[in-house]
Fold:
Amino acid sequence: AATTQETIRAATGRNWEHLSVKGREFSVIICTFNGASRIEQVLTALAELNPGTVHEIILVDNCSTDGVATVASTVWNRIARQPVDFRIIFEPTLGLSAARRAGVRAATRDLVVFCDDDNLLAPNYLEVAASIMADETIGAAGGVAMPIMGGEATPIFLSYAGWYAVGVQALDGGDIDLLWGAGIVVRRKLLVQLYDTPGFPVLVGRRGSALTTGEDHEICYGVSFLGHRLWYDERLTFRHIIPSERISEIYIRRMLEGVKLARPIVNLYAELHKITNETFQQRLRSILSATARLPMFVQRRDARFFGLIARFRMTFLMTFEERAIFEIFCSLRKSRRREGVRTKSHAAAAFRRRLNFLNPTVE
Structure:
């Protein structure tokens, strides 16, 4: 049977040129595993995006068995209202992290929006995102999600709504430490740097029906390590489809188990994030405090012990996972320093051009 799927594999050898595209140009990436029942709603919302924003849509079929690629192709051909480059690719490695990496590799625009297969973006989503990302210091941005409930919102659901990526992410807009992966807007060049880093990502994310998680936090910490800010803005809004089967206590327990499995890795990233933002006085205080509790840390071997040995680069005391994450951290920090050197040289060159314009040399 004819298929619309195009296989994109990890080792394609594709040259990831860092595009510098001016204007509001987006790659909307939808990663899906068996999302055929929801994909029409998602695509309909994308078809209703306000005209004027140049974008492409990339659907990443992550080992689905429900024919979502064929459904999506049929739906888009029927509802498309403006010229948009719509592509469907196939990622054979199961897991949300692998699917997002494939989507980024296939993307050609300067800004990426990760739209889950149950997210309905507001018509002005890309316009608002473009205004936020006009600030070059912002590496990623996220917003507010309103639920579309497939059943009654039970008290236990309301207690854990944040884990569903529902509601607000902060009381006020502005800088934030972490963002949901749902609806997140990220500079493509930063994602390229992350996925080009050996060992990244460590966490696989949702894997089929397994509710493993933490991959969105890993992206956020990576963006921070590269020297960019995370920004929360209530003008960025989308609706999040919550089917009835996801409201049950059984589902919530499975979700929390996935969070528990990812937490040790996320905590290691969090410790490195502290190091990144510490002043000299804060670092000295942290080292003295941790050293005083060293016997307890060695016995428990928690993330704070990792933070202590990371400050002294004592990799010989690290476990395999700790060393892998520390190497990712060091690689990204080196990339940040190189980028900083380029930025300073570009600024100096621009300043010299302005001087030459004001004081032209007379031949």
Observations:
- The radius of gyration is 22 Å.
- The chain is about 45% helix and 15% strand.
